Give the backbone structure.
Amino acid sequence: MSEIASLAATIFRRAAKAKRFVVAIAGPPGAGKSTLAERLAELLPGQQTAVVPMDGFHFDDVVLNQRGLRPRKGAPETFDFAGFAVLLGRIRAGEADIAIPVFDRSMELSRAGAAVIGSEIKFIIVEGNYLLLDEKPWSSLAGLFDFSVFVAVPRPELERRLMERWRGHGKSDDEARAWIASNDLPNIKRVIERRRAADLVVDFG
C-alpha cells in the first residue's frame, strides 16, 4: 500500500461513524499540499469528499498594495483569517451549500463562490501553509480539525519546486530567486519553526 493510500485508510478508519470529518494538511510553500489533498480526495469516497484550499482567502493585490504587504504576499498577515475561520466554523457545523473561494494562480486572484460544499459531504480536506501555525490568531483553528497532517520536505527540494513554479508563472530565473529569497524562504522558516504538533508527519521530498 502506498503512503497516500495508507493515509486515506487511516482517515477513513478515524472518521468511523462521524457525520463530518475535517482533515488539515499543512506544510511550507512547495511541499505538495495541494497534490496530496487531491490524491486523498481521489481515494476517499468521491461523493462524500471535498477539498478546501486556504489560498482562496488571499487578500487581493489591491488590498495588499494599500497595506504595504504586496512584497510579503503569502505570509500569514496577507490572508483573510477571520473569513477563513468563519468558513471552517460553518463546515464544522455541517451547514448545507457552503460556497468557498478558490485561488486562481493563473490570474493571481481568488474566485468567490468557485465551489460549493453540500451537507452530504463527510470528508473535508483543508490544505494550507498556516493551519498548524502556533501564533495567534491561527492557533485558534486547532479545535476545528479532527486530524492533522504536516508535509515535510527538505529545503533544497522546496527551493527547486518553487523555482519551477515561478518559472511557470513567467518569472525569469533572477526574478524567481529574488522572490524565493525575500518571500518564500521566510514563510518556509515560519511554517517549520512555529508549528503545532501534527497527528502525522509525511515526507514528500
